[in-house]
């Protein structure tokens, strides 16, 4: 316990060797109690994420390990080592408060399970012991099995960007056509865009969230905040204040499944031109002499973006544990482009997952009337 305490104190002191020295502590305290934390998935509790439908394997494994460690501690309560209890409890509490701390708990939990479960494993009936001896796997065979499993899981050896996750096409469009000016982008794409476009372009915000206020400004833009700032809606005032000349964005929220409010706002604003879309991303360019050639060459009717919304929502629904909102958004987009039969199918898929939703039911009834009228 003394050795552990010494290491903990030394580790805390070492963290002060950073560009901000001790000033990092009040910053972390402010971050802990601020709104910024509530917007970031990795800073949310795994309990909250699991209840929200994020049934991902890492959370299942985490809760399984947590349960097993707690069970072993109860069984060995009389002989429990205080250091084990302190380390496990601290890391478990941290992991339950934020998902980003799970990687610190997991390796320690494995060691603790191995230590405290050893006595119980020895009590397994002799038949299992006999089986274990007869099926003993040499170390080299074990590594061969691991290699085969890695080959089966082709993702281990793939290069490039995961499809349908990042705006590869939009980044390529910007580089090939040399769109001029400052960029606005969503928070979740900032890291990729830095990697892909630096040093030709600077991002508006990225996943580091260095300046929380800028993060919240990016949210207000995406939400098309209507609050008035000098006779302008806030989202437009923010873009003007930063001199934003083009926007790279998605049309459907990655977690909400809802239409991004900025999209219809841009649709109704004649200053912004839709010049690129690829079912994952859109690029809007502000009216300007610098980008006149881009606008004249690539501008497409803004109404076409409803195709983008419908396809993007359908693609994201495949990876979502709660796809109902995505189906509803696809239905709204198809309804807007007057593809009524396809819209009804999308709404029906959403209604199966949310049978008590009156809006979906009313919209389907409206579509039935329209479809029957068209049939006549």
Can you describe this structure?
With 376 residues, the protein is of the alpha+beta class. A hairpin with a 4-residue loop joins strand 5 (272-277) and strand 6 (282-286). The protein is globular, with a radius of gyration of 27 Å. It has a four-stranded mixed β-sheet with strand order 1-4-6-5, sandwiched between helices. Helices cover 59% and strands 6% of the residues.
Summarize the structure in short.
By secondary structure, this protein is α+β, with helices and mostly antiparallel strands. It is 59% helix and 6% strand.
Approximate strand percentage? 5-15%
Indicate the overall shape.
globular
Indicate the radius of gyration in whole angstroms.
27 Å
Uncertain residue ranges: none
In round numbers, the mean pLDDT is 87
- The counted number of beta strands is 6
Q: How are strands sequenced across the largest beta sheet?
A: 1-4-6-5
SSE order, one letter for each helix or strand: HHHHHHHHHHEHHEEHEHEEHHHHH
- The number of distinct helices, counting runs of at least 4 residues, comes to 19
The biggest beta sheet, please?
A: 4 strands, mixed
Helix content: 55-70%
**Structural class computed from helices and strand pairing:** alpha+beta
End-to-end distance, in Å? 83 Å
Q: Which assembly state applies to the chains in this document?
A: single chain
């Amino acid at each position: 316990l003394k050795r552990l305490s010494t290491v903990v104190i030394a580790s805390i002191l070492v963290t002060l060797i950073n560009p901000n020295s001790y000033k990092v502590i009040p910053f972390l305290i402010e971050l802990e109690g601020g709104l910024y934390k509530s917007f970031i998935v990795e800073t949310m509790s795994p309990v909250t994420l699991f209840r929200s439908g994020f049934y991902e394997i890492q959370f299942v494994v985490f809760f399984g390990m947590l349960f097993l460690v707690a069970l072993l501690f109860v069984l060995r309560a009389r002989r429990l080592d205080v250091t084990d209890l302190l380390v496990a409890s601290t890391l478990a509490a941290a992991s339950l408060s934020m998902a980003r701390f799970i990687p610190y708990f997991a390796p320690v939990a494995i060691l603790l399970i191995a230590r405290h479960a050893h006595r119980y494993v020895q009590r397994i009936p002799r038949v299992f012991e006999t089986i274990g001896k007869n099926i003993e796997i040499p170390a080299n065979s074990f590594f061969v099995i691991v290699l085969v499993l890695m080959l089966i899981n082709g993702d281990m050896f793939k290069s490039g960007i995961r499809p349908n996750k990042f705006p590869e096409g939009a980044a390529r469009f910007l580089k090939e056509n040399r769109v001029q000016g400052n960029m606005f982008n969503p928070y979740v794409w900032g890291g990729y865009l830095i990697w892909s476009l630096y040093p030709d372009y600077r991002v508006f915000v990225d996943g580091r969230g260095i300046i929380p206020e800028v993060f919240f400004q990016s949210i207000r833009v995406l939400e098309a905040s209507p609050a008035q700032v000098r006779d302008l809606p806030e989202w437009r005032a923010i873009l003007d204040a930063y001199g934003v000349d083009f926007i790279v964005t998605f049309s459907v929220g990655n977690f909400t499944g809802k239409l991004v409010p900025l999209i219809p706002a841009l649709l109704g604003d004649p200053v912004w031109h839709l010049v690129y879309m690829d079912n994952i991303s859109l690029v809007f360019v502000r009216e300007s002499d610098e980008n006149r050639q881009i606008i004249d060459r690539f501008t497409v009717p803004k109404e076409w973006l409803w195709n983008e919304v419908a396809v993007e929502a359908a693609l994201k629904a495949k990876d979502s544990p709660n796809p109902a909102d995505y189906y509803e958004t696809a239905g709204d987009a198809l309804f807007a482009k007057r593809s009524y039969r396809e819209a009804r199918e999308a709404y029906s898929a959403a209604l199966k997952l949310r049978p008590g939703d009156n809006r979906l039911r009313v919209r389907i009834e409206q579509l039935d009337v329209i479809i029957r009228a068209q049939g006549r």
